[in-house]
User: Which sequence fits this backbone?
């Protein structure tokens, strides 16, 4: 780690390489599988009018969240803040991570104070987390936890059905 770099803990769609490297165009200096203790994963940040929600973490004694720590330059982190809607949607908070060997790592992550507990991830959004979790080799039990998450009814699918476009198998849909 350089003296000016920062570690960012990704637990949501930024786990997925096509999101983090592709859409966000970020190139981390390094990456490490990491665990955030005493926080829990939620999908309570509203997206659209239906049930869909984006990932968020909340403090919770005894809980844990697996993800990836990316080492970023301050400029890259500022770019990430803008793509994540800081401070409107999330705020950057300091968190203590634990690496698989037990070593501590000081990092920053995104947390939203507000949230709607009735929200759930869409199939597409949860797929990004699962792709990223497998890509980075997150623990199998964490992947199982993610796979078991209840999915939101995606109101966009219902809208497509109204127009007879549901037969395209999901092609062309974007979130």
Assistant:
């Amino acid at each position: 780690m350089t003296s000016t770099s920062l570690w960012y803990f990704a637990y949501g769609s930024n786990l997925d390489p096509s999101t983090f490297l592709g859409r966000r165009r970020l190139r981390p200096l390094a990456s490490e599988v990491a665990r955030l203790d005493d926080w829990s994963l939620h999908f309570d940040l509203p997206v659209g009018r239906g049930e869909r929600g984006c990932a968020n973490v909340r403090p919770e004694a005894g809980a844990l969240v697996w993800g990836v720590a990316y080492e970023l330059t301050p400029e890259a982190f500022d770019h990430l803040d803008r793509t994540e809607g800081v401070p409107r949607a999330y705020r950057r908070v300091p968190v203590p991570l634990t690496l698989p060997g037990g070593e501590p790592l000081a990092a920053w992550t995104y947390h939203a104070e507000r949230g709607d507990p009735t929200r759930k991830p869409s199939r597409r959004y949860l797929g990004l987390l699962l792709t990223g979790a497998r890509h980075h080799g997150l623990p199998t039990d964490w992947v199982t936890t993610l796979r078991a998450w209840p999915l939101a009814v995606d109101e966009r699918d219902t809208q497509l059905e109204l127009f007879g476009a549901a037969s395209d198998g999901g092609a062309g849909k974007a979130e």
In short: Strands lie at 6-10, 30-46, 53-72, 91-98, 104-111. The chain has one domain: 6-167. Helices lie at 17-23, 74-84, 123-136, 140-147, 155-162. The mean pLDDT is 89.
